[in-house]
Each structure stands twice: as structure tokens, then as C-alpha cells.
Design brief:
98 residues, alpha+beta, Alpha-Beta Plaits, 4-stranded antiparallel beta sheet, 3 helices, 40% helix, 27% strand, UPF0045_domain, Thiamine_BP
Length: 98
Amino acid sequence: MEASVAIQVLPSAKDEESLIGIVDEVIAYIASTGLNYQVGAFETSIEGDYDELMEIVKQCQIIAIKAGAPSVSAYIKVVYKPEGEVLSIEKKTKKHQH
């Protein structure tokens, strides 16, 4: 695993219920990729190949629009280490899970 991303998708929506539904569709897409991911209260972390992760980031925007958002913003954090492994989600968070 050479990269990890954290993505916070912020679709515009008419109400909170619509917003949650759109975000749920984005998360379902992330789950369908088969990559290791973890959903948090503000963002979702995903691990994998850099190019594949960048495509997932792109598709998250498209899926939010297809799910009904007239526009979408996203905040993205990227860790990339082409010569080796990045620190995994598990190593970063396991001791803090309860």
C-alpha cells in the first residue's frame, strides 16, 4: 500500500435527510471498491494504490451529483510514498478504538 487518502464529501442538499442519503451513496461506492477503508464522523480514510485512490476521489464527486446533489465540495488529504508503505489506518487508530 503506497498511499492513503481521507475524503470529506460535502454535497449541497435541500435538507439533512437528503444530505445523509447522498453521503451514504458515496460511502457505499467506496465500500464497493474492495479497498480497506474506515468511516469517521467527518471523513472516510481509504488505503491503496495512488492512481486507484485518485480515481475514487474523482468518482466520489460524480456519485454525489448523480445521487441528487446540485453541487459538491470535498476536502482531501493524501499521503503518498512511492518507495514503500504508508502508515496504515489500523496502526494509526487501533489503540484509540473502543
